[in-house]
Amino acid sequence: MGRKSAVSLETLSSSRLQLQTWFRLNHLPWKLVIFGLFAVVAVWLGFLKFSAYDAGQLVRNFGYYTMALTFAAWIWCLLRVVRETSYFIGTGWWRIAAGALGLTLVAVMTTPYSYKVLYDELVIQTTSIVLSQDRVVGAIGRAYELWGRLQVSLDYVDKRPFFYPFLVSIIHDWTGYREANAFILNTLLMPVILGLTYGITRKLAGVTAGWVALVSLGTFSLLALNATGAGLELLNLALILGLIWTGGHYLERPEHTKRLSLFVLTAILLANTRYESGIYIATAGLVVFEGWRRAGAIRLSVPVILAPLLLIPYAWHNTYLSGMPVLWELREGQEERFSLDYFSANIAFARQYFANFGSEIANSPWLTWAGLAALVGWMVLRGRQRRRWGDVGGMEWSVVACGFGVFANLGLLMAYYWGDLTDPIVSRLGLPLHALLAILVGCAAGWLAKVWRSWISPAAIVGALTSYMAWGLPVNQRLTDFNLVETLQRWQLRVVLERGSMTRLVISDRSPLFWFCQGVSSTSNERAASLISGLAYHWAHRSFDEILVMQAMVPEGQGGILIPLTDAVLPAAVKLEQVAQTRIAGQVHRISRIVDIDTDKLPPPDPVPKDS
Protein backbone atom coordinates (compact mmCIF):
# COMPACT_ATOMS: atom_id res chain seq x y z
CA MET A 1 0.00 0.00 0.00
CA GLY A 2 2.81 2.33 0.94
CA ARG A 3 4.60 1.48 -2.29
CA LYS A 4 1.46 2.25 -4.33
CA SER A 5 1.11 5.56 -2.52
CA ALA A 6 4.73 6.40 -3.26
CA VAL A 7 4.23 5.58 -6.95
CA SER A 8 1.05 7.66 -7.03
CA LEU A 9 2.80 10.61 -5.39
CA GLU A 10 5.71 10.28 -7.80
CA THR A 11 3.33 10.16 -10.78
CA LEU A 12 1.37 13.15 -9.45
CA SER A 13 4.57 15.09 -8.89
CA SER A 14 5.79 14.27 -12.41
CA SER A 15 2.45 15.30 -13.95
CA ARG A 16 2.44 18.54 -11.98
CA LEU A 17 6.00 19.24 -13.18
CA GLN A 18 4.94 18.61 -16.78
CA LEU A 19 1.96 20.95 -16.39
CA GLN A 20 4.15 23.62 -14.89
CA THR A 21 6.60 23.22 -17.75
CA TRP A 22 3.80 23.34 -20.30
CA PHE A 23 2.28 26.49 -18.88
CA ARG A 24 5.51 28.39 -18.57
CA LEU A 25 5.26 31.55 -20.66
CA ASN A 26 8.38 30.82 -22.66
CA HIS A 27 7.04 27.42 -23.71
CA LEU A 28 3.66 28.71 -24.85
CA PRO A 29 3.30 30.17 -28.37
CA TRP A 30 2.23 33.36 -26.61
CA LYS A 31 3.14 35.60 -29.53
CA LEU A 32 0.88 33.58 -31.81
CA VAL A 33 -1.93 33.69 -29.24
CA ILE A 34 -1.68 37.47 -28.98
CA PHE A 35 -1.55 37.75 -32.76
CA GLY A 36 -4.74 35.67 -32.99
CA LEU A 37 -6.50 37.81 -30.40
CA PHE A 38 -5.50 40.98 -32.23
CA ALA A 39 -6.79 39.48 -35.50
CA VAL A 40 -10.20 38.76 -33.93
CA VAL A 41 -10.38 42.25 -32.43
CA ALA A 42 -9.38 43.79 -35.78
CA VAL A 43 -12.12 41.92 -37.67
CA TRP A 44 -14.72 42.90 -35.07
CA LEU A 45 -13.73 46.57 -34.93
CA GLY A 46 -13.07 46.88 -38.66
CA PHE A 47 -16.05 45.10 -40.22
CA LEU A 48 -18.69 44.43 -37.58
CA LYS A 49 -18.75 47.09 -34.85
CA PHE A 50 -19.44 50.28 -36.79
CA SER A 51 -21.93 51.42 -39.41
CA ALA A 52 -20.72 52.66 -42.79
CA TYR A 53 -21.09 56.30 -41.74
CA ASP A 54 -19.31 55.80 -38.42
CA ALA A 55 -16.52 53.86 -40.12
CA GLY A 56 -16.06 56.75 -42.54
CA GLN A 57 -15.81 59.23 -39.68
CA LEU A 58 -13.20 57.06 -37.96
CA VAL A 59 -11.16 57.00 -41.15
CA ARG A 60 -11.53 60.76 -41.47
CA ASN A 61 -10.43 61.54 -37.91
CA PHE A 62 -7.82 58.84 -37.22
CA GLY A 63 -6.65 57.68 -40.66
CA TYR A 64 -3.79 60.19 -40.89
CA TYR A 65 -2.25 59.15 -37.58
CA THR A 66 -2.53 55.40 -38.15
CA MET A 67 -1.00 55.81 -41.61
CA ALA A 68 1.82 57.94 -40.18
CA LEU A 69 2.49 55.25 -37.54
CA THR A 70 2.55 52.46 -40.14
CA PHE A 71 4.79 54.39 -42.52
CA ALA A 72 7.19 55.36 -39.72
CA ALA A 73 7.40 51.72 -38.63
CA TRP A 74 8.12 50.70 -42.25
CA ILE A 75 10.94 53.27 -42.51
CA TRP A 76 12.40 52.05 -39.21
CA CYS A 77 12.33 48.40 -40.33
CA LEU A 78 13.83 49.30 -43.71
CA LEU A 79 16.74 51.14 -42.11
CA ARG A 80 17.39 48.24 -39.73
CA VAL A 81 17.53 45.72 -42.56
CA VAL A 82 19.63 47.89 -44.88
CA ARG A 83 22.09 48.68 -42.09
CA GLU A 84 22.80 45.01 -41.44
CA THR A 85 22.88 43.66 -45.00
CA SER A 86 23.81 44.67 -48.51
CA TYR A 87 20.09 44.63 -49.18
CA PHE A 88 19.90 46.72 -52.33
CA ILE A 89 23.41 47.69 -53.38
CA GLY A 90 25.25 45.31 -55.68
CA THR A 91 28.11 45.54 -58.13
CA GLY A 92 27.70 48.05 -60.94
CA TRP A 93 24.85 49.84 -59.17
CA TRP A 94 25.70 53.13 -60.90
CA ARG A 95 25.04 51.56 -64.32
CA ILE A 96 21.64 50.40 -63.12
CA ALA A 97 20.87 53.85 -61.73
CA ALA A 98 21.97 55.48 -64.99
CA GLY A 99 19.78 53.14 -67.04
CA ALA A 100 16.71 53.68 -64.82
CA LEU A 101 17.18 57.46 -64.73
CA GLY A 102 17.79 57.58 -68.49
CA LEU A 103 14.52 55.78 -69.26
CA THR A 104 12.72 58.04 -66.78
CA LEU A 105 14.13 61.08 -68.57
CA VAL A 106 12.83 59.75 -71.90
CA ALA A 107 9.37 59.33 -70.34
CA VAL A 108 9.39 62.90 -69.02
CA MET A 109 10.60 64.35 -72.34
CA THR A 110 8.05 62.48 -74.48
CA THR A 111 5.00 62.71 -72.22
CA PRO A 112 3.93 66.08 -70.76
CA TYR A 113 2.92 66.38 -67.13
CA SER A 114 -0.87 66.39 -66.93
CA TYR A 115 -3.82 64.78 -65.21
CA LYS A 116 -4.38 61.49 -67.02
CA VAL A 117 -7.41 60.25 -65.04
CA LEU A 118 -9.02 63.60 -64.46
CA TYR A 119 -11.53 63.22 -61.65
CA ASP A 120 -9.54 60.57 -59.76
CA GLU A 121 -6.29 62.52 -59.78
CA LEU A 122 -7.99 65.80 -58.84
CA VAL A 123 -9.70 64.13 -55.88
CA ILE A 124 -6.34 62.68 -54.81
CA GLN A 125 -4.73 66.12 -55.06
CA THR A 126 -7.41 67.75 -52.92
CA THR A 127 -7.16 64.91 -50.39
CA SER A 128 -3.45 65.64 -50.03
CA ILE A 129 -4.30 69.31 -49.37
CA VAL A 130 -6.72 68.42 -46.55
CA LEU A 131 -4.27 65.89 -45.08
CA SER A 132 -1.54 68.52 -45.02
CA GLN A 133 -3.65 71.36 -43.65
CA ASP A 134 -5.98 69.63 -41.21
CA ARG A 135 -4.56 66.13 -40.62
CA VAL A 136 -7.90 64.54 -41.53
CA VAL A 137 -8.71 62.23 -44.45
CA GLY A 138 -11.04 64.04 -46.81
CA ALA A 139 -11.38 65.36 -50.33
CA ILE A 140 -12.43 68.98 -50.85
CA GLY A 141 -16.12 69.52 -51.41
CA ARG A 142 -16.09 73.30 -51.06
CA ALA A 143 -13.25 75.79 -50.60
CA TYR A 144 -12.56 79.50 -50.98
CA GLU A 145 -9.42 81.59 -51.06
CA LEU A 146 -9.24 83.82 -48.00
CA TRP A 147 -6.25 85.94 -47.00
CA GLY A 148 -4.13 84.40 -49.74
CA ARG A 149 -4.79 80.79 -48.71
CA LEU A 150 -7.33 78.20 -49.82
CA GLN A 151 -9.66 77.60 -46.88
CA VAL A 152 -11.55 74.28 -46.95
CA SER A 153 -15.13 74.75 -45.77
CA LEU A 154 -16.40 71.26 -46.62
CA ASP A 155 -14.61 67.93 -47.02
CA TYR A 156 -15.80 64.37 -47.38
CA VAL A 157 -14.26 60.90 -47.12
CA ASP A 158 -13.54 59.69 -50.63
CA LYS A 159 -13.61 56.08 -51.74
CA ARG A 160 -9.96 56.05 -52.85
CA PRO A 161 -7.32 54.69 -50.41
CA PHE A 162 -5.18 57.47 -49.03
CA PHE A 163 -1.58 56.25 -48.71
CA TYR A 164 -0.53 58.03 -51.91
CA PRO A 165 -2.12 61.39 -50.98
CA PHE A 166 -0.60 60.92 -47.52
CA LEU A 167 2.89 60.78 -49.08
CA VAL A 168 2.10 63.83 -51.23
CA SER A 169 0.91 65.66 -48.09
CA ILE A 170 4.30 65.02 -46.48
CA ILE A 171 5.97 66.75 -49.44
CA HIS A 172 3.50 69.63 -48.99
CA ASP A 173 4.58 69.85 -45.35
CA TRP A 174 8.21 70.22 -46.43
CA THR A 175 7.82 72.56 -49.40
CA GLY A 176 4.43 74.18 -48.98
CA TYR A 177 1.54 73.22 -51.23
CA ARG A 178 2.49 72.87 -54.88
CA GLU A 179 0.41 71.19 -57.54
CA ALA A 180 3.62 69.71 -58.97
CA ASN A 181 4.40 67.69 -55.83
CA ALA A 182 2.16 64.78 -56.84
CA PHE A 183 3.78 64.65 -60.29
CA ILE A 184 7.26 64.78 -58.79
CA LEU A 185 6.51 61.83 -56.50
CA ASN A 186 5.41 59.66 -59.43
CA THR A 187 8.43 60.64 -61.50
CA LEU A 188 10.72 59.64 -58.61
CA LEU A 189 8.90 56.33 -58.27
CA MET A 190 9.67 55.28 -61.86
CA PRO A 191 13.43 54.66 -61.34
CA VAL A 192 12.59 52.91 -58.06
CA ILE A 193 10.27 50.56 -59.96
CA LEU A 194 12.89 49.89 -62.62
CA GLY A 195 15.56 49.28 -59.97
CA LEU A 196 13.35 46.76 -58.17
CA THR A 197 12.53 45.04 -61.48
CA TYR A 198 16.23 44.72 -62.21
CA GLY A 199 17.04 43.45 -58.71
CA ILE A 200 14.32 40.79 -58.70
CA THR A 201 15.23 39.50 -62.17
CA ARG A 202 18.96 39.56 -61.42
CA LYS A 203 18.33 37.38 -58.36
CA LEU A 204 16.45 34.92 -60.53
CA ALA A 205 18.55 34.73 -63.69
CA GLY A 206 21.62 36.97 -63.58
CA VAL A 207 22.80 40.42 -64.61
CA THR A 208 21.90 40.32 -68.31
CA ALA A 209 18.41 39.08 -67.43
CA GLY A 210 18.03 42.04 -65.07
CA TRP A 211 18.92 44.47 -67.83
CA VAL A 212 16.42 42.92 -70.24
CA ALA A 213 13.65 43.22 -67.64
CA LEU A 214 14.60 46.81 -66.80
CA VAL A 215 14.53 47.93 -70.42
CA SER A 216 11.38 45.94 -71.25
CA LEU A 217 9.40 47.66 -68.49
CA GLY A 218 11.13 51.04 -68.85
CA THR A 219 10.08 51.27 -72.50
CA PHE A 220 6.42 50.61 -71.71
CA SER A 221 4.25 53.61 -72.65
CA LEU A 222 1.75 52.99 -69.84
CA LEU A 223 4.53 53.36 -67.29
CA ALA A 224 5.63 56.66 -68.85
CA LEU A 225 2.07 57.99 -68.89
CA ASN A 226 1.61 57.28 -65.20
CA ALA A 227 5.06 58.59 -64.28
CA THR A 228 3.97 62.01 -65.57
CA GLY A 229 0.53 61.91 -63.97
CA ALA A 230 -0.81 62.39 -60.46
CA GLY A 231 -2.46 58.99 -59.92
CA LEU A 232 -1.66 56.26 -57.43
CA GLU A 233 -0.74 53.50 -59.90
CA LEU A 234 3.04 54.00 -59.70
CA LEU A 235 3.01 53.71 -55.90
CA ASN A 236 0.86 50.59 -56.13
CA LEU A 237 3.28 48.99 -58.61
CA ALA A 238 6.34 50.00 -56.57
CA LEU A 239 4.87 48.34 -53.47
CA ILE A 240 3.95 45.16 -55.39
CA LEU A 241 7.55 44.87 -56.58
CA GLY A 242 8.68 45.81 -53.08
CA LEU A 243 6.55 43.00 -51.69
CA ILE A 244 8.20 40.53 -54.09
CA TRP A 245 11.66 41.83 -53.17
CA THR A 246 11.18 41.81 -49.40
CA GLY A 247 9.38 38.46 -49.54
CA GLY A 248 12.19 36.84 -51.52
CA HIS A 249 14.84 38.10 -49.11
CA TYR A 250 12.79 36.97 -46.12
CA LEU A 251 12.47 33.44 -47.52
CA GLU A 252 16.23 33.29 -48.04
CA ARG A 253 16.78 33.92 -44.32
CA PRO A 254 13.42 33.12 -42.64
CA GLU A 255 15.00 33.17 -39.19
CA HIS A 256 15.52 36.94 -39.54
CA THR A 257 12.43 38.55 -38.00
CA LYS A 258 13.64 41.99 -39.15
CA ARG A 259 13.13 40.92 -42.75
CA LEU A 260 9.75 39.47 -41.82
CA SER A 261 8.70 42.78 -40.23
CA LEU A 262 9.66 44.77 -43.31
CA PHE A 263 7.80 42.34 -45.58
CA VAL A 264 4.56 42.45 -43.54
CA LEU A 265 4.57 46.25 -43.22
CA THR A 266 5.10 46.50 -46.99
CA ALA A 267 1.97 44.38 -47.48
CA ILE A 268 -0.02 46.68 -45.15
CA LEU A 269 1.05 49.81 -47.04
CA LEU A 270 0.20 48.08 -50.32
CA ALA A 271 -3.30 47.27 -49.08
CA ASN A 272 -3.83 50.99 -48.39
CA THR A 273 -2.82 52.04 -51.92
CA ARG A 274 -5.62 50.65 -54.10
CA TYR A 275 -8.99 49.09 -53.28
CA GLU A 276 -8.20 45.67 -54.70
CA SER A 277 -4.65 45.55 -53.30
CA GLY A 278 -6.04 44.03 -50.12
CA ILE A 279 -5.71 40.74 -52.05
CA TYR A 280 -1.97 40.89 -51.37
CA ILE A 281 -2.60 40.41 -47.65
CA ALA A 282 -3.47 36.80 -48.56
CA THR A 283 -0.34 36.63 -50.73
CA ALA A 284 1.75 37.86 -47.80
CA GLY A 285 0.18 35.18 -45.62
CA LEU A 286 1.32 32.45 -48.04
CA VAL A 287 4.89 33.77 -47.97
CA VAL A 288 4.91 33.98 -44.16
CA PHE A 289 3.67 30.39 -43.82
CA GLU A 290 6.38 29.23 -46.21
CA GLY A 291 8.94 31.15 -44.17
CA TRP A 292 7.80 29.41 -40.99
CA ARG A 293 8.06 26.05 -42.74
CA ARG A 294 11.58 26.78 -43.91
CA ALA A 295 12.64 28.05 -40.50
CA GLY A 296 11.07 25.05 -38.77
CA ALA A 297 9.43 27.36 -36.23
CA ILE A 298 6.81 30.08 -35.95
CA ARG A 299 8.70 33.35 -35.63
CA LEU A 300 6.87 36.61 -34.98
CA SER A 301 8.09 40.12 -34.31
CA VAL A 302 6.31 43.04 -32.66
CA PRO A 303 5.34 44.74 -35.99
CA VAL A 304 3.90 41.45 -37.24
CA ILE A 305 1.92 40.90 -34.03
CA LEU A 306 0.49 44.43 -34.36
CA ALA A 307 -0.25 44.01 -38.07
CA PRO A 308 -3.97 43.16 -37.63
CA LEU A 309 -4.46 46.35 -35.61
CA LEU A 310 -2.68 48.40 -38.28
CA LEU A 311 -5.14 47.02 -40.84
CA ILE A 312 -8.21 48.30 -38.95
CA PRO A 313 -8.31 51.62 -40.89
CA TYR A 314 -8.25 49.64 -44.13
CA ALA A 315 -11.24 47.64 -42.87
CA TRP A 316 -13.06 50.84 -41.85
CA HIS A 317 -12.52 52.31 -45.30
CA ASN A 318 -13.81 49.11 -46.93
CA THR A 319 -16.88 49.12 -44.67
CA TYR A 320 -17.52 52.77 -45.52
CA LEU A 321 -17.24 52.21 -49.27
CA SER A 322 -19.40 49.07 -49.22
CA GLY A 323 -22.16 50.94 -47.37
CA MET A 324 -22.12 54.06 -49.59
CA PRO A 325 -23.44 53.11 -53.06
CA VAL A 326 -23.39 56.79 -54.06
CA LEU A 327 -19.58 56.51 -54.22
CA TRP A 328 -19.59 53.56 -56.62
CA GLU A 329 -20.20 55.77 -59.70
CA LEU A 330 -22.30 53.10 -61.39
CA ARG A 331 -23.70 53.67 -64.85
CA GLU A 332 -27.42 54.00 -65.44
CA GLY A 333 -29.21 50.67 -64.98
CA GLN A 334 -26.38 49.07 -62.98
CA GLU A 335 -26.85 48.04 -59.38
CA GLU A 336 -23.70 46.08 -58.48
CA ARG A 337 -20.00 46.90 -58.67
CA PHE A 338 -19.00 43.26 -59.16
CA SER A 339 -20.97 40.69 -61.09
CA LEU A 340 -20.30 37.72 -63.35
CA ASP A 341 -22.59 39.44 -65.84
CA TYR A 342 -19.73 41.80 -66.68
CA PHE A 343 -17.25 38.98 -67.23
CA SER A 344 -17.85 38.08 -70.89
CA ALA A 345 -17.73 41.68 -72.12
CA ASN A 346 -14.60 42.46 -70.12
CA ILE A 347 -12.85 39.33 -71.40
CA ALA A 348 -13.57 40.47 -74.96
CA PHE A 349 -12.11 43.91 -74.16
CA ALA A 350 -9.03 42.28 -72.60
CA ARG A 351 -8.48 40.16 -75.69
CA GLN A 352 -8.74 43.29 -77.85
CA TYR A 353 -6.33 45.14 -75.55
CA PHE A 354 -3.58 42.52 -75.56
CA ALA A 355 -3.91 41.83 -79.30
CA ASN A 356 -3.77 45.52 -80.26
CA PHE A 357 -0.99 46.78 -82.54
CA GLY A 358 -2.35 50.31 -83.04
CA SER A 359 -1.51 53.58 -81.31
CA GLU A 360 -4.92 54.12 -79.73
CA ILE A 361 -4.41 51.73 -76.79
CA ALA A 362 -1.55 51.86 -74.27
CA ASN A 363 -0.27 48.30 -74.41
CA SER A 364 3.06 46.79 -75.47
CA PRO A 365 3.16 44.12 -78.18
CA TRP A 366 6.66 43.25 -77.01
CA LEU A 367 5.68 42.63 -73.39
CA THR A 368 2.47 40.88 -74.38
CA TRP A 369 3.83 38.32 -76.79
CA ALA A 370 7.36 37.87 -75.45
CA GLY A 371 5.95 37.81 -71.92
CA LEU A 372 3.31 35.17 -72.68
CA ALA A 373 5.92 33.04 -74.44
CA ALA A 374 8.20 33.37 -71.40
CA LEU A 375 5.34 32.44 -69.05
CA VAL A 376 4.52 29.29 -71.05
CA GLY A 377 8.20 28.39 -71.25
CA TRP A 378 8.62 28.78 -67.48
CA MET A 379 5.59 26.58 -66.77
CA VAL A 380 6.86 23.86 -69.14
CA LEU A 381 10.35 24.01 -67.63
CA ARG A 382 9.07 23.75 -64.07
CA GLY A 383 6.73 20.93 -65.07
CA ARG A 384 9.60 18.90 -66.52
CA GLN A 385 11.86 19.48 -63.55
CA ARG A 386 9.10 18.36 -61.17
CA ARG A 387 10.64 20.27 -58.29
CA ARG A 388 8.74 20.56 -55.06
CA TRP A 389 7.75 24.11 -54.15
CA GLY A 390 9.72 23.78 -50.95
CA ASP A 391 12.91 23.43 -52.97
CA VAL A 392 12.34 26.56 -55.06
CA GLY A 393 14.53 29.59 -54.28
CA GLY A 394 13.14 32.29 -52.05
CA MET A 395 12.86 34.99 -54.72
CA GLU A 396 11.18 32.69 -57.22
CA TRP A 397 8.74 31.53 -54.56
CA SER A 398 7.91 35.17 -53.77
CA VAL A 399 7.41 36.00 -57.47
CA VAL A 400 5.02 33.06 -57.87
CA ALA A 401 3.05 33.91 -54.71
CA CYS A 402 2.71 37.59 -55.67
CA GLY A 403 1.98 36.53 -59.25
CA PHE A 404 -1.13 34.78 -57.95
CA GLY A 405 -2.13 38.13 -56.44
CA VAL A 406 -1.58 39.89 -59.78
CA PHE A 407 -3.76 37.39 -61.66
CA ALA A 408 -6.38 37.45 -58.89
CA ASN A 409 -6.56 41.22 -59.30
CA LEU A 410 -6.95 40.83 -63.05
CA GLY A 411 -9.74 38.29 -62.52
CA LEU A 412 -11.48 40.68 -60.12
CA LEU A 413 -11.24 43.42 -62.75
CA MET A 414 -12.97 41.17 -65.26
CA ALA A 415 -15.97 40.99 -62.90
CA TYR A 416 -16.00 44.77 -62.33
CA TYR A 417 -18.58 47.01 -63.96
CA TRP A 418 -15.83 49.24 -65.37
CA GLY A 419 -13.31 46.60 -66.42
CA ASP A 420 -12.79 47.59 -70.07
CA LEU A 421 -9.00 47.48 -70.52
CA THR A 422 -9.26 49.29 -73.86
CA ASP A 423 -10.46 52.37 -71.97
CA PRO A 424 -7.47 54.67 -71.25
CA ILE A 425 -8.80 55.21 -67.74
CA VAL A 426 -8.89 51.46 -67.02
CA SER A 427 -5.80 50.30 -68.91
CA ARG A 428 -3.52 51.62 -66.14
CA LEU A 429 -4.71 48.71 -63.99
CA GLY A 430 -2.68 46.38 -66.23
CA LEU A 431 0.64 47.75 -64.97
CA PRO A 432 1.26 44.97 -62.38
CA LEU A 433 0.71 42.26 -65.00
CA HIS A 434 3.12 43.94 -67.43
CA ALA A 435 5.75 44.25 -64.70
CA LEU A 436 5.41 40.52 -64.06
CA LEU A 437 5.73 39.85 -67.80
CA ALA A 438 8.87 42.02 -67.94
CA ILE A 439 10.45 39.90 -65.19
CA LEU A 440 9.55 36.71 -67.07
CA VAL A 441 10.97 38.09 -70.34
CA GLY A 442 14.22 38.96 -68.56
CA CYS A 443 14.49 35.51 -66.98
CA ALA A 444 13.79 33.76 -70.29
CA ALA A 445 16.39 35.87 -72.11
CA GLY A 446 18.98 35.25 -69.41
CA TRP A 447 18.40 31.51 -69.40
CA LEU A 448 18.48 31.23 -73.21
CA ALA A 449 21.65 33.32 -73.34
CA LYS A 450 23.37 30.77 -71.07
CA VAL A 451 22.22 27.57 -72.76
CA TRP A 452 21.82 28.61 -76.39
CA ARG A 453 23.09 31.91 -77.85
CA SER A 454 24.81 34.81 -76.09
CA TRP A 455 23.18 37.34 -78.43
CA ILE A 456 19.68 36.59 -77.08
CA SER A 457 19.81 39.23 -74.32
CA PRO A 458 21.01 42.11 -76.57
CA ALA A 459 18.38 41.07 -79.12
CA ALA A 460 15.69 41.21 -76.42
CA ILE A 461 16.79 44.74 -75.44
CA VAL A 462 16.68 45.81 -79.10
CA GLY A 463 13.19 44.26 -79.38
CA ALA A 464 11.95 46.28 -76.40
CA LEU A 465 13.44 49.52 -77.77
CA THR A 466 11.99 48.87 -81.24
CA SER A 467 8.56 48.25 -79.75
CA TYR A 468 8.80 51.53 -77.85
CA MET A 469 9.76 53.50 -80.98
CA ALA A 470 7.08 51.85 -83.15
CA TRP A 471 4.16 51.75 -80.67
CA GLY A 472 5.03 53.34 -77.36
CA LEU A 473 5.93 56.89 -78.39
CA PRO A 474 2.94 57.27 -80.78
CA VAL A 475 0.66 56.03 -77.97
CA ASN A 476 2.08 58.64 -75.59
CA GLN A 477 1.39 61.41 -78.12
CA ARG A 478 -2.04 60.16 -79.14
CA LEU A 479 -3.37 59.73 -75.60
CA THR A 480 -2.01 63.15 -74.63
CA ASP A 481 -3.81 64.75 -77.60
CA PHE A 482 -6.95 62.74 -76.81
CA ASN A 483 -7.09 64.20 -73.28
CA LEU A 484 -9.35 67.07 -74.32
CA VAL A 485 -10.63 68.05 -70.86
CA GLU A 486 -7.07 68.50 -69.60
CA THR A 487 -6.24 70.52 -72.73
CA LEU A 488 -9.23 72.77 -72.02
CA GLN A 489 -8.37 73.21 -68.36
CA ARG A 490 -4.75 74.12 -69.10
CA TRP A 491 -5.91 76.74 -71.64
CA GLN A 492 -8.28 78.21 -69.07
CA LEU A 493 -5.49 78.30 -66.50
CA ARG A 494 -3.14 80.11 -68.89
CA VAL A 495 -5.77 82.79 -69.54
CA VAL A 496 -6.43 83.24 -65.83
CA LEU A 497 -2.73 83.50 -64.95
CA GLU A 498 -2.22 86.12 -67.65
CA ARG A 499 -4.79 88.31 -65.90
CA GLY A 500 -2.54 88.64 -62.88
CA SER A 501 -2.81 87.71 -59.22
CA MET A 502 -5.99 88.73 -57.41
CA THR A 503 -8.74 87.30 -55.25
CA ARG A 504 -10.83 85.47 -57.79
CA LEU A 505 -13.88 83.21 -58.01
CA VAL A 506 -14.12 80.83 -60.97
CA ILE A 507 -17.57 79.56 -61.91
CA SER A 508 -16.75 76.45 -63.92
CA ASP A 509 -18.69 74.22 -66.28
CA ARG A 510 -16.29 71.45 -65.23
CA SER A 511 -15.39 70.15 -61.79
CA PRO A 512 -14.25 72.93 -59.42
CA LEU A 513 -11.60 70.50 -58.14
CA PHE A 514 -9.13 71.65 -60.81
CA TRP A 515 -9.30 75.21 -59.49
CA PHE A 516 -8.98 74.07 -55.90
CA CYS A 517 -5.69 72.46 -56.94
CA GLN A 518 -4.59 75.91 -58.17
CA GLY A 519 -5.54 77.52 -54.85
CA VAL A 520 -8.45 79.40 -56.49
CA SER A 521 -12.03 79.74 -55.18
CA SER A 522 -14.45 77.92 -57.43
CA THR A 523 -17.95 76.58 -57.75
CA SER A 524 -19.99 75.01 -60.52
CA ASN A 525 -22.34 76.80 -62.91
CA GLU A 526 -25.26 74.78 -61.60
CA ARG A 527 -24.55 75.73 -57.99
CA ALA A 528 -24.04 79.38 -58.88
CA ALA A 529 -27.36 79.44 -60.74
CA SER A 530 -29.24 77.73 -57.92
CA LEU A 531 -27.76 80.09 -55.31
CA ILE A 532 -27.87 83.25 -57.41
CA SER A 533 -28.87 85.45 -54.47
CA GLY A 534 -25.66 84.43 -52.69
CA LEU A 535 -23.64 85.23 -55.81
CA ALA A 536 -25.34 88.64 -56.01
CA TYR A 537 -24.46 89.28 -52.36
CA HIS A 538 -20.76 88.56 -52.96
CA TRP A 539 -20.84 90.72 -56.10
CA ALA A 540 -22.40 93.62 -54.24
CA HIS A 541 -19.93 93.40 -51.35
CA ARG A 542 -16.91 92.80 -53.60
CA SER A 543 -15.86 89.61 -51.82
CA PHE A 544 -13.75 88.83 -54.90
CA ASP A 545 -11.73 91.15 -57.11
CA GLU A 546 -12.96 89.24 -60.13
CA ILE A 547 -15.55 86.59 -60.92
CA LEU A 548 -14.89 84.55 -64.07
CA VAL A 549 -17.38 82.25 -65.79
CA MET A 550 -16.32 79.23 -67.89
CA GLN A 551 -18.87 78.09 -70.47
CA ALA A 552 -19.09 75.64 -73.37
CA MET A 553 -20.92 77.30 -76.28
CA VAL A 554 -23.09 75.91 -79.08
CA PRO A 555 -24.49 77.72 -82.16
CA GLU A 556 -28.22 78.43 -82.35
CA GLY A 557 -30.36 79.38 -85.30
CA GLN A 558 -29.43 80.31 -88.84
CA GLY A 559 -27.14 83.11 -87.71
CA GLY A 560 -25.04 80.69 -85.69
CA ILE A 561 -25.20 82.82 -82.55
CA LEU A 562 -23.28 81.10 -79.77
CA ILE A 563 -25.21 80.35 -76.61
CA PRO A 564 -24.10 78.41 -73.50
CA LEU A 565 -24.98 74.78 -73.07
CA THR A 566 -27.99 74.20 -70.84
CA ASP A 567 -25.97 73.27 -67.75
CA ALA A 568 -23.73 76.34 -68.17
CA VAL A 569 -26.49 78.98 -68.32
CA LEU A 570 -26.64 81.68 -65.65
CA PRO A 571 -29.77 83.82 -65.02
CA ALA A 572 -30.33 86.78 -67.35
CA ALA A 573 -29.67 89.14 -64.45
CA VAL A 574 -25.96 88.26 -64.65
CA LYS A 575 -24.20 90.47 -67.19
CA LEU A 576 -21.06 88.98 -68.77
CA GLU A 577 -18.17 90.36 -70.76
CA GLN A 578 -16.11 88.04 -72.94
CA VAL A 579 -12.47 87.64 -71.93
CA ALA A 580 -11.22 84.83 -74.18
CA GLN A 581 -12.54 82.15 -76.50
CA THR A 582 -11.11 79.06 -78.17
CA ARG A 583 -12.19 76.03 -80.15
CA ILE A 584 -11.13 72.56 -78.94
CA ALA A 585 -12.16 69.47 -80.91
CA GLY A 586 -14.97 71.30 -82.66
CA GLN A 587 -16.49 72.82 -79.52
CA VAL A 588 -16.25 76.49 -78.59
CA HIS A 589 -15.26 77.40 -75.03
CA ARG A 590 -15.55 80.90 -73.63
CA ILE A 591 -14.23 82.68 -70.57
CA SER A 592 -16.24 85.70 -69.43
CA ARG A 593 -16.18 87.98 -66.42
CA ILE A 594 -19.17 89.26 -64.51
CA VAL A 595 -19.58 93.01 -64.96
CA ASP A 596 -22.94 93.42 -63.22
CA ILE A 597 -25.76 91.57 -61.51
CA ASP A 598 -29.15 93.27 -61.75
CA THR A 599 -30.81 92.35 -58.47
CA ASP A 600 -34.19 93.60 -59.74
CA LYS A 601 -34.21 90.84 -62.33
CA LEU A 602 -33.25 88.01 -60.00
CA PRO A 603 -35.78 85.21 -59.78
CA PRO A 604 -37.56 84.95 -56.42
CA PRO A 605 -36.08 82.40 -54.00
CA ASP A 606 -37.80 79.06 -53.74
CA PRO A 607 -40.43 79.06 -50.99
CA VAL A 608 -39.51 77.24 -47.82
CA PRO A 609 -42.05 74.52 -46.88
CA LYS A 610 -43.85 75.21 -43.61
CA ASP A 611 -42.93 71.81 -42.18
CA SER A 612 -39.21 72.08 -43.00
Short synopsis of the structure:
The protein has 25 helices and eight strands. It is α/β, with parallel strands linked by helices and 612 residues long. A hairpin with a 2-residue loop joins strand 7 and strand 8.
Question: Mind explaining what this structure looks like?
Answer:
It is a single chain. This protein folds into three domains: about 10-45; about 50-480, no CATH class; about 485-600, no CATH class. Helix content is about 60%, strand content about 10%. It contains 25 helices and eight strands. The chain has helices spanning about 1-20, 30-50, 50-85, 95-110, 120-135, 165-175, 180-205, 205-220, 220-225, 235-250, 255-270, 280-295, 300-305, 305-310, 310-320, 345-355, 365-385, 395-415, 425, 430-450, 455-480, 485-500, 515, 525-530, 530-540, and strands at about 140-145, 150-155, 505-510, 520-525, 545-555, 560-565, 575-585, 585-595. Strands 3, 4, 5, 6, 7 and 8 form a six-stranded mixed sheet that branches. Helix 23 links the parallel strand 3 and strand 4 (about 520-525). Helix 7 packs parallel to helix 20, helix 10 (about 235-250) runs antiparallel to helix 11 and helix 17 packs across helix 20 (about 430-450). The radius of gyration is 29 Å and the shape is globular.
